[in-house]
């Protein structure tokens, strides 16, 4: 089996790890608090990454100085802001809506890159931004008429997307040197410490109580598959596939996530939901899929 075929199969597996992790989180949140869920989930994820890194004999060392500082700052966006906003969003809004709003992150990344890095916004990116704004409006308008709880949840999902997008742009600006998987491990560790501080601040001294098997299933899935193994797979395939194929694979994640929420959580998307999903999905596709340059006509 060729490397490209293996990478495609791993990309499919990755879409299930990341896509279904949202439903796993929501299942766990039925019994544990958001701070507990993130602390346990990221601790399991960090342990999984550590085992995989050591199994490959990779060094965890990051040289002291600017790179360590940049790893810490990027973690505040990619792990801490993403984790807190995404978790609380699910307590207030429909999970399938949270998933699709979160996957608007490529659009916001391109907009941030314009201001922070001076990258050009081409026609496709502009169309993607317009589609994204339209999709958000379609999602929010119907539920805002019922109560403010759901719109606040979707706003938190948007913060989640902005956190991931901002962290991605920051890392691109900082040009952190080193093994990307090792950098990710330390960012997850920053998240573990931040969530521990949050837990102690808002919930006090940890107390242990028996959990249902489905809650443990959600925590273990999110930690082992949705965090540790997912990052390991991603960084092992991005060098084997073209940008187009990797981008196409990433677009499967929200599809798997929404279908998983329908099957596992009983979500029932409405007509406006489907329109909003389609608009935001199209917006992400506009930004993520590279343009194929037309071949130049040869001179006669």
List descriptors:
single chain, 300 residues, mainly alpha, 78% helix, 0% strand, globular
Instruction: Give the amount of beta strand, in percent.
Output: under 5%
Structural class: mainly alpha
The low-confidence parts are: 294-300
Average of the residue pLDDT scores: 88
Structure, briefly:
The protein has one domain (3-288). It is built from 11 helices and no strands.
Give the helix/strand layout.
Layout: H1 3-28, H2 34-55, H3 66-92, H4 95-102, H5 105-116, H6 123-144, H7 149-174, H8 180-203, H9 213-237, H10 243-265, H11 271-288
Describe the protein in words.
With 300 residues, this protein is an all-alpha fold. The C terminus is likely disordered. It is globular and about 50 Å long. Helix content is 78%, strand content 0%. The chain has one domain. Helix 1 runs parallel beside helix 10.
């Amino acid at each position: 089996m060729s490397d490209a075929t293996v990478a495609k199969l791993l990309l499919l597996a990755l879409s299930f790890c990341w896509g279904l992790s949202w439903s796993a989180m929501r299942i766990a949140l039925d019994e544990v608090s958001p701070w507990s869920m993130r602390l346990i989930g990221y601790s399991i994820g960090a342990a999984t990454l550590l085992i995989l890194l050591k199994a490959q004999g990779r060094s965890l060392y990051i040289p002291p100085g600017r790179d360590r500082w940049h790893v810490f700052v990027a973690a505040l966006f990619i792990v801490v802001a993403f984790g807190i906003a995404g978790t609380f969003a699910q307590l207030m809004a429909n999970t399938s809506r949270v998933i699709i709003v979160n996957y608007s992150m490529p659009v916001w990344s391109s907009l941030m890159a314009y201001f922070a890095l001076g990258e050009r916004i081409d026609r496709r990116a502009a169309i993607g931004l317009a589609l994204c704004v339209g999709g958000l409006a379609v999602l929010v308008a119907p539920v805002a008429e019922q109560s403010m709880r759901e719109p606040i949840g979707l706003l938190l999902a948007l913060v989640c997307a902005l956190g991931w997008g901002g962290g991605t742009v920051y890392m691109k600006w900082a040009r952190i040197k080193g093994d990307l998987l090792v950098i990710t491990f330390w960012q997850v560790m920053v998240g573990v410490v931040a969530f521990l501080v949050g837990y102690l601040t808002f919930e006090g001294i940890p107390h242990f109580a028996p959990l249902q098997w489905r809650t443990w299933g959600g925590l273990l899935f999110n930690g082992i598959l949705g965090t540790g193994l997912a990052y390991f797979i991603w960084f092992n395939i991005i060098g084997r596939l073209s940008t187009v194929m990797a981008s196409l694979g990433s677009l499967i994640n929200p599809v798997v996530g929404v279908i998983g929420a329908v099957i596992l959580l009983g979500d029932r998307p409405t007509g406006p939901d489907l329109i909003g999903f389609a608009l935001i999905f199209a917006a992400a596709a506009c930004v993520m899929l590279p343009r194929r340059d037309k071949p130049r006509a040869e001179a006669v």
